[in-house]
Amino acid sequence: MTSIASVNQASDNAEKIVIDDKVKAEGNESLTVVMSLSVKWNGALFPIDIYEGMTVSEFKEEIQTQTKVRPEKQKLINLKAKGKPASESMLMTGLGLKNGAKIMMVGSIDEDLVAATTVPDELPEVVNDLDIAEDKLLSVHQRQDYIEKIEKRVREYELKVLNPMRPGKKLLVLDIDYTLFDHRSVGQNGLELMRPYLHEFLLSAYQDYDIAIWSATSMKWIQEKMKLLGVSTNPNYKIVFYVDSLAMIRIEAPDYGVVEVKPLAVIWGKHRHYHAGNTVMLDDLRRNFLMNPQNGLKIRPFRRAHENRGTDRELLKLAGYLQDIAQLDDLSALRHSRWESYRPGGY
């Protein structure tokens, strides 16, 4: 088994990849947040970060990620250039918008998505993930209507394999924002916003796990962030596939309203050698694993990178935990909420 010490030695090459000038040049500008806007649609506000170089077309793709309204069905009332509707190729930063501005949208969801995305009128407003209690996590994942939504994702969602799946390896599914990367702070490059020990953690996990990335954003931004952080170009470990927001489903959580979640059964249905007994998901939002509560581990969110990067040791400690449990044949009986108390042989 690879120790953390040997991982630190082996990560020298990884560090060189991260600080490579080419990587910074390719990823830095495209993900520099310059302002945030809100899109008002259907009585709700959807916050969207605007990056340097973002076009109107890419802005519409982000709207689709959050609302499921396709770009061709979006009518953005006050997104204009010189009094005329902004064209697809125009830069968002060139439209004279102020930080915090609201964009009004008219548009409808495709009919085949209505059943999966319509919020019943009588449901309470969604509250923040502060925090869905463990007993609530166990109450929704067996509902037949949600299982049918998952089956639809298994049939229709395209999961593109980036690197070979390795026989006998378990599966580690990782969130990005606030898990690996502080996406709200502003930095000169990805190194300033990357969670400490990211590459050491991924290299350690790679010894026992195939690694997947699942983010509640569009595929474009997953690819950009992985490039920015030097993950997609690192020669010492490989990511098996990316999963974006289109694989998520919307459910009603008791006492919490309607939330979007990441059902691991979408992955399990497509690649059946992965299953509840050999999969772990790390996410800073517990609600994301409502459909697979036994497989979710809530990581402390990494925020205010400039203040906390000198003291954050979360990934370093989690690397040890994942090494320890990788020796087990079945992970489904573990209580990941107590991961810090785990020792080989039990809690």
From TrEMBL:
Might you name a Gene Ontology BP term for this protein? regulation of proteasome assembly
Entry EC no(s)? 3.1.3.16
**InterPro entries listed in its UniProt record:** FCP1_dom (IPR004274), HAD-like_sf (IPR036412), HAD-SF_hydro_IIID (IPR011943), HAD_sf (IPR023214), Ubiquitin-like_dom (IPR000626), Ubiquitin-like_domsf (IPR029071), UBLCP1 (IPR051658)
The prosthetic group or cofactor this protein requires is:
Mg(2+)
The record, for SMART domains, names: CPDc, UBQ
Enzyme class, first EC level, given as a word: hydrolase
As recorded in Swiss-Prot or TrEMBL, the protein's gene is named: LOC108668742
- What Pfam families does the annotation carry? NIF (PF03031), ubiquitin (PF00240)
Reading the lineage from the top rank, the first entry is Eukaryota
GO terms for CC?
nucleus
Known catalysed reaction(s)? Answer: O-phospho-L-seryl-[protein] + H2O = L-seryl-[protein] + phosphate; O-phospho-L-threonyl-[protein] + H2O = L-threonyl-[protein] + phosphate
| Domain Ubiquitin-like intervals | 35-106
Name assigned to this protein = Ubiquitin-like domain-containing CTD phosphatase 1
Q: Where is the FCP1 homology domain?
A: 165-325
Which PROSITE patterns does the record cross-reference, listed alphabetically?
FCP1, UBIQUITIN_2
Listed A to Z, the keywords are: Hydrolase, Magnesium, Metal-binding, Nucleus, Protein phosphatase
Q: Where would you find this protein in the cell?
A: Nucleus
Q: Under the GO molecular function aspect, what terms does this record hold?
A: metal ion binding; protein serine/threonine phosphatase activity
Which organism is this entry from?
A: Hyalella azteca
